[in-house]
Structure formats: C-alpha cells, structure tokens
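quick one before i forget lol
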Amino acid sequence: MHSVECKKAHSWTSGRTFGKAVVGALLLMGVSGTALAQNMVVRSTGPSAKSYPAGKKLASNVRITLKKLDSVTILSKSGTRVLKGPGTFSLGKTASRQSNSSTRFASFINNRGTSRARTGAVRSAGVTAVNTAPKNPNLWYLDVTKGGKFCVADANALVLWRPDYTGSATASIVEPNNGAVTQVAWRKGNPLKSWPKSSAPLTNGASYRLIGSNVEKSVEVNFVMLGQAPENLDQAAEMLIANGCQSQLDLLVETLDDGSATEASQG
C-alpha cells in the first residue's frame, strides 16, 4: 500500500511538472510569436507585390526574396525600411537602428496634437536659405488638398489643415447630395481650423467636397469613422490599411521615413 501511494504521489508530481512545462512552453510560444511579429508591410510595388500586400505582418526571422523592380516598405519599431530587389533580405539584419518610433511619433498619432507646422529653412555654407514645404503635423488633420477616404479617430476633434498659410484663406464644404455649403476661414499664419460639425455632420460614409480659395482643384473626401483611436503605430497602420485611408497611410510612411531608411543589405 505504501508503494502504491508513493507511485501515485510521484505520478502527480510528474504530471504537475509536465503541466507547468507545457504551460511554460505555450507562454513562451505566445511571447515569441508576439515578439517576432513586429514588422508590417505598408507599401509594396513590383512583380512580388501580391506576395507582400499592405497589412501583412512578418516575423523578424523571415527572409524575403525580391525580384527586379520590387520595392517593399516595412514598418517596424525602428521606423520604416525599404527593401528593393533583386535580392534576398533578412529582416533581422535590417533592424539595426535603435530609435523608438512609437515614442518619437506619439504626438503625430495623438488626436489631441496641437502642433502647427511651420515653413522651414534649409541652409548650407555659401548657399541661400531655401524654404521647404510644410508637412501635415498630425495623422488626424484633414489636408484640404487631399481627397479620398479619410479615417476619423474622434468626430469631435477633426481639424482642417492647409499647407499654404502665408495669407488668409477660405474653403467651402459642399454636401454633394443636397448642395448645402458651409464656409470656413483661416486667418493669416494659421494652418488649422476646426471642422464645422454642427453644419456639416460627420457620420460613417459621409461625403463632402472641399473647395479651397487658394487650392488648385477641389477634392472629395469620404469619411470613415473609426470605432476607437489606435494606441500605437501598428494599430494606426492596420486601421488605415483596412479602411483604405491611403493619403493618411502615405503621410504615416513619409513621416516615419526621416531620410535614414535605405535599401537593405542582402543577407
């Protein structure tokens, strides 16, 4: 009887140890899977574009083989990286930059951002300063020169942004179904204006035409109301891709590409 009890006790202990091992392995697999899935395709062109559609997630240990004319832009915690074919690339080897884009661009994806873009000046020794075009400082500011689908994270905080704010300007917001017109005005030097939500309600699928006084052509904007605002860059990219908000996705990629993103080394 004693030997039987010992055997049962040993069996229970072994089972408990095995159970812990299994749980530990599953947790490890889960953590590893989360850690490895840290690269997302945000732009892809060329013969292999179908294999790397926007939104596809890639593990850091993945090797990508690209053909001639292929170009794949990947978003990661260190920013964006552009892989250009032909060649085989290791994502692990291309993730050498240590800058934390999630922190660096927190204000850019924060819908409460209030920064105002200013025209910058680039100077070089013996060269006259050259003004650079202002850049939209917030992912959720609606550029009055861009049409197409626009994702709204907060209907109560939508802001119109104009790239040329050297003087005063106006814009007409036209509801295409009934022709109702709402006009907004900017003062000289101010690039921002709150969307007139009382006279131009924002609903999912709502469409408006924007006609700016100093814009070359009018644009039509189709609004997509997001259920919740993204908390990080990955979520922002996923939502923009899933809802077809291309102009915002382009802005996100351009903002993350600070000029240090280059062709990846073959590995």
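fyi The chain has a mean pLDDT of 76.
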